[in-house]
Amino acid sequence: MTMKVKEQNEISETGELLPPEILEEIQQALQECYVCRRCISGCPVANQMEYPPAVLLKLLALGQVERILQSRTIWLCTSCQNCYSRCPFEINIPYIIDLLKEYATKKGVGTSEKGIRKFHKVFLGEVQRTGRVHEMSLIAKWKVFSGNLFGDMLLGMKMFLKGKLSFLPEKIKDKENLKEMFKP
Amino acid sequence: MRMAYYPGCSLHGTALEYDLSTRAVCHELGIDLEEIPDWNCCGATSAHSLDKNLSYYLPARNLKIIQETGLDVVIPCAACFSRTRCCADALENDPQMRQIIEKKLSYKFHNDTQIYHLMELLAQQLGLEAIRSHVKRPLKDLKVVCYYGCLLVRPHQFTRLDDKENPQLLDELMTTIGATSVDWPFKTECCGASLSLTRPDLVLDLIKRMTDWTQDADIDAIVTACPLCQANLEMRQSADQKIPVFYFTELLGLAFGSEEAAAVVKKHLVSTDTLVAKLMDDVTQAKEYAPTAEK
Questions:
Q1: A102 and B54 in contact by Cβ < 8 A?
Q2: Of residues A148 and B58, more confidently modeled
């Protein structure tokens, strides 16, 4: 007996549903996963995740959407592709996690790994500003945002002295297309 | 051989050594690198984590520029390579995404640009024999492990590079230049990637497993082909371990007797001085000995 994913979501605790465009993409995966755990065995951060890969898929299948969207799990994923690489059904777990991260961000869902999400925003902020990531600017901005002003300071000084952190960012000339790419 | 060259953001910053050694080695091997004009960031991890469409637009703009050059492209950074290949795959096989991208960037995608990672360009397209013929100073006293990391070999559907569980290309390159490449269990284990700035504690653990192993096995150095892997391995190993981490192009450069390579490795955070002194002590003699002089 297989329940359609939509039916499963309707009986979730919080009544939270994933939007149809995401459900469409993950439906097959949620039905296929039989928790062989190859993904969990190969995941470098599984021991830090509340819901390591196969568990995440099963919880989604059972309608525990809100829990997953708020999890640390989806942000800790390093996109190493080990799970995808070893899954007998070739379930693209990193891609599914990306969809969840994007959705959680758009919805403004809270997470306890705020730092990681913020970091990605700061990174893309740099890309939007200049077209390239100037590491000095990125690190400076990240330190201000994260409140961790003095961590890695010695490292930073060393790198600067060796000419690995330049003062001036490089800006691309094609501002028009750059702006266009970031338009929603 | 003329190739379009996409360095990516790190190679203009903290991975300067990778850029400089790549240029030196390619120059020696007769590969003309033309850095593509006005390239943008590939989006790395942050784009695909927050905005799927953006994660395609960014590399697609680069592909548009590359297409206009009429050349194939070589990419040294594993992450840039991965994102660019992923984008090319979408353009090729996902008509809906292709339409969205082409509209956004006002261009028509022709499926005729080959996208190479630097490692496969040198080891496979150019070939090991060609590499061997340029070796002036075989790195005989060097015992290394090859760290491929994640994105060169996975997802294999996109990278189509080597073997995804036990790749050999880098090992073969190292053997070709005279070094001893030791087999080890961490070839394709994740270094923690972009968690380095947000969760360095996790990266420390991941790196420690590897550097503990290399310390126990008396390895001289770790060799890698990705800027973030190199940075993590170097910056996040424990302070007492001091294991040098090279880009494979630096070692190729040293074996070719390149002075640029010798200069570039001085920029490493974990000092390579003792190791390089041991390897390079007779480079000047090797240069005089070599039948074909540089430049």
A1: no
A2: B58
Neighbour count for residue B198 (Cβ, 10 Å) = 23
CB contact under 8 Å between A124 and B13, yes or no, is no
Give yes or no for a contact between A12 and A65, defined as CB atoms under 8 angstroms apart: yes
Residue B47 contacts A where some CB pair is shorter than 8 Å:
yes
Weakly modelled stretches of chain B, pLDDT under 70: 280-295
Range A5-107: architecture per CATH: Orthogonal Bundle (1.10)
| CA–CA gap between residue B52 and residue B77 (Å, rounded) | 21
Rounded CA separation B102/B57 (Å): 9
- When pLDDT is averaged across residues A127-149 and rounded to a whole number, the result is 87
| CATH number of the domain located at residue range(s) B137-289 in this protein | 3.40.50.11810
Higher-pLDDT residue of A148 and B210 is B210
> Counting one residue from A and one from B, how many pairs have CB atoms under 8 Å apart?
147
Question: What are the extents of the domains in chain A?
Answer: 5-107, 114-182
Return the residue of A nearest to B9 by Cα.
A133
Q: For position A35, what pLDDT does the model report?
A: 95
What is the architecture of the domain spanning B2-117? Up-down Bundle (1.20)
Q: What phi and psi, each to the nearest 5 degrees, are found at residue B238?
A: -75, 145
Residue B149 to chain A, least CA–CA distance (Å): 8
Structure confidence at residue A55 as a pLDDT band (50, 70, 90): very high
Which residue in B190, B43, B194 sits closest to A113, CA to CA?
B194
Residue appearing with tokens 């990125």: A138
